[in-house]
Each structure stands twice: as C-alpha cells, then as structure tokens.
Please model this.
Amino acid sequence: MSKVIALTDIRRVFTMGDQQFEALKGVSYSISAGEFVAIMGASGSGKSTCMNILGCLDRPTSGQYLLDGLDVGAMNTNQLADIRNKKLGFVFQGFNLLARTPAVENVELPLVYAGLHSRERREKALAAMQQVGLAGKENNHPSQLSGGQQQRVAIARALVNNPAVILADEPTGNLDSSSTAEIMSLFTTLNKQGITIIMVTHEHDVAAYAGRQITFRDGNIIGDTK
Amino acid sequence: MDFLQTLKIALRALRTNKMRSFLTMLGIIIGIASVIAMMAVGSGASYVISQQIASIGSNIILVIPGSTTSGGLRTGSGGAQTLTSDDVKAIMAECPSVDLASGTVRSSGQVVYGNMNWSTVIMGGTPELFEIREWGIANGRGITQQDVDGAVKVCLLGQTVADNLFGSADPVGNIVRIKKIPFTVIGVLERKGQSPQGTDQDDTLFVPLRTAQRNLVRSQHTNNVGALIVKAKSKELLTKAEEEINSLLNQRHRITGGKEPDFSTRNLSEILAVAEQSSKAMSLLLGAVASISLIVGGIGIMNIMLVSVTERTREIGIRMAIGAKKNDILLQFMTEAVLLTMLGGLIGIALGAGGAMVVSRMLEWPTLISFQSISIAFVFSGAVGIFFGFYPARKAAGLNPIDALRYE
Model:
C-alpha cells in the first residue's frame, strides 16, 4: 500500500515570550492509503498540534512531512491553501458550517475555491450529499438540521473534492450516542470504499471503530496498535 | 474563485444584516447626495453667470472717454467727449484683430405713446452694435446703415419698453415721441434679461447713431460718440486688439510722453475671469464639505467592516481550512465594502438628483446634473470603499486559520 502520509522526526516548538514549549518532540509515523486511524491522547498530549500539522494549518518547526508524496514543509501559505483544498477534507467537532447558507452550498464551498463552474459544483455537491445519505436536504439551512445531519453535511463537504485524506477532529464530540453511532458507521462505510480517514478522539469506544490507534502523551507517541 | 461567487457571498453577508448595512451606507448616501446636489446647484449658478455674461456679447472691449478738466473741476471718467465716429472707422480699418466696432451715444428720457409714457435709456448705435452684442430682432426689422446715414427717425424697442408702452399690442409701425420728437417703431428686440450687474438690459430703446447725435444728445460736435464697443476676432486676440486700439487712439489723439490718455479701454473678459474664479472657489468649498462627509462615511464603513471581521472570524477560519487563499478572503471583504459604498453611492446619486430638482422647483434656480458629476460621485464612492475596506479586509486575510477556527 502506498503511503499517504509520512512524518519523519516532526518537532513543533511554541515560543511564548521567553518561554519555549515543545508540543511535539520528534514524532515519526506513516499512514497508508485506505487506513482508518484514530489519534488518541489526553489534552495537551500533542495530538491537536499533530492534527494541525497534518491538516497543513500549521507547519512543523523541524522534520519532514510528505503528503501524498509532496513535501509540505517547503510550501508557502498559498500552496498550503491549495493542498488543503485538493488533498484534504476537514470534519470538525463543532461542524463549522456556514450559517444562513443552504446545505448544498456549504458542500460546494471547497469547489468554489477550487475554481469550478457552478453547474459542475452543483453536480458534485449533490453526489456527495447522496453519498452521506442527505438527499432531499439540499436546501435546508444548518439551523434546520439535527446535529448528526449537520455533521453529515460537513462530511459531504470534506468528501466533495475527492481528497487523499479526511481529517476529523473529535467528530462526535458534540453528538449524542445515537448520532455518534450513525456518524461512525458512515465513516466505516466510507473507509470501506477506500477513503483514508484520520480521526482525533479521546473516547475509546469511538476509537474502536478505527483499524489503528495511535496514542500520544507529552509530545511523543506511546502506542500504535492495529 | 470567480467574481460572481464573491459578489454573491458579499450580497448574502449584507442581506443578513439589512439594518446595519443600511445604517452603514447612510454616511455614504448623505455624502454622495450632498456632492450631487451641491454640484448641481453650483453648476446651475455658474450657468446663470455665464448666461448673463454671454448676454453682453463675447470678446468685447469697451472704449470710454476719459475725464476733462474745466475751470479746475475734473469730470469723472466718460465725462469728456473725445471719441468720434472717425475713431470707430479708423479702428475698423486699421486694427487687424478687431472684427467689428460701433460708436454709441447714451441718453435717457421719457418715451410717450398715446396716453402711456415710460422713462428709459436711449441708445444710439449702428447696425454693428447688434451684431457685437449678439442681439436679434424679435419682431419687425433692425437698424440699417441707411437709417444711420440718413439720420432717420426710427427706433427699436427693448422688450421691457415695448411691454410698458404697448402691452400686448404690436408696436411695429406706430409712432412714439422721444423728447417730444416723433419716431417710428421699426422693431422689437429679443429678450436679453439681466446684465451681470443686475440691470435690466431690455429696458432700453435704440435709435440710429446719427439720429441720436443730431436730435437727442447735446454736444459740441455731432460727430462725437459716447463710448465705443468693439468685438475682437477671437478670445485669443482680445488682448492684442486692446493693445492695437490703445496705440491707434494714442496716435490719433496725439497722446505722447507723460500725457494722460483721454480715453480708456475695458476688457469684458476680466469680468468673466472674476466670475469664473468666484464660481471655482464656490465649487471648491462645496467639494471640501462633501469630501469631509464622505470621509466620515468611509470611517463608518471601516468601523462596521472591522466589527464584521471579528464577528465572522470563525467563518474566515472555515473558509481558510477549506482552501481559501489570503487573496480570496481579502477580495471577499473588499467586495463587501465596495458593494456597500457603491450601493450607498447609487442611492445617494438618486437622492441628490431628486434634492436638486426640488431645489430648482422651489427656488426657481436652475440646477445642472451632469453625467460627469454622477460618474465622479460613483467612482468616488467605490474608491471610498476600496480605501476604507482595505484595512479590515487585510486584517481578515491575515488571520491564522487555527486561531480563527477556535474563535468563539
């Protein structure tokens, strides 16, 4: 299996005044295409920092990050924005949909920044909504949808650009148990279709859906189980 | 990202806060409306002034006699009778920059028709006078060279004189008495309106120059004229014509060395320049007032855009995470600001034009709304949006996506 993500000796040091804090202390691991990985750890363990780096929202202080074979560390902010747009799909804890904007337009958003024409955008967005089981809810605004449905809109938005990886940050953190099960089974289905998913969570039963669990503590990986 | 989509997003953002958008726009609306209204009223004023100046005629030089001293008493300027019809002929013949010239004599007196009478200005002139002053005949015929040569007792009435003596009847062919001498009315002049000095130019009666010289003014020589009115060939030749007249008349009147000339020339373009200058100063003042209100409006826009950036930090974070580049965010907020100011500008233009029309209706003051002032206002409102929208937009584009996403 080809490696979608390869991290080598990633360090991230935050400087606050004259104090330095090392959030990641030389992390190395790789993820192959088609994997479903859960990243676990207590808060402050470095898992969120690692997720930000994986999501190209932040850059490592040192170390190499290859995403789909591309050296992300050498890129400028515009190139990173492009990578986020084309290679990554984000699912957040708080859904992060645009309010007062119909669901289908939320799903279209990455395609807008990719520069696609409106008809093509609409086709792809409708297909993605179908894929997450939201056909018929296209014109609903986020406030008219349940939490689970909103998260599915967010998943459709993450899927719409055919990314190499879907990054989910506590995707079930704001959901009740039945919605959680619904979202996790959607992730499982998508993973079975060949989509690589990396998910941050601190709940063990949620992590259990994933085929591999990486555990962080104090900026280091302390466990990597399949 | 295509511009249409940017526009759509900006419109949606403005629609979500309708009241706020409107209040923000209000500064620009008031600013632009005042620019438009003031420019309309101002250009109406300068239109009136230029109309009045044009009513005198264009490219005109007046030659008036100087003063005389008799028995130690000096008369005022124009008191002497030093200019003659021969001077007029000489100017026409020898000054290449001069187009036309006419001698005039001026008197005043009672004009009587039937049981009506009216005191008015009586002017003696040649046919050139009407050409120089660009004054047409409304009814009947004008004064001809034959009338002048033969000192025929005919007269032309200004509109005010005709109205006062004849009412709505046609004066042509009737006999009026001027200083007890009967004159036949041959025509009525077109209405001229007010002079720049505010006198009614239509309250005048014209007779042929020689008729006036012989019958209506007392002077030593019947050849004397009161003043000369001269038209230069063009605006550019105005000063040259004035110089030519001065040197010719100096020569003819044998004025050499330190001797004071017995005449003086006056160039009407000086009046024009003064009028133009005052209307320019006026527009400058109006422009200054209007631009201050536009700056105030612009600051309002900047303020609200800054609030909007803060409010929508999370949205900016989402857009960035999803692939928006710095420029996309910059453009989006700039578009919003420019859209606000341009919409405000459009409403302001409509209000300003409406206001100007109300002013012109109520005060009977002409207002001119030029395409130029509208396009300047429109472009200016857009420029205000770009100028005051840039800082907030740059602030939005400079946000860190991680912090923006976490913003509550």
In short: Residues 3-53+274-406 of chain B form one domain. Chain B touches chain A at residues 1-2, 5, 12, 16, 314-315, 317-328, 401-402, 405 (CB under 8 Å). The first strand of chain B starts at residue 60 and ends at 65. The first helix of chain B runs from residue 3 to 16.
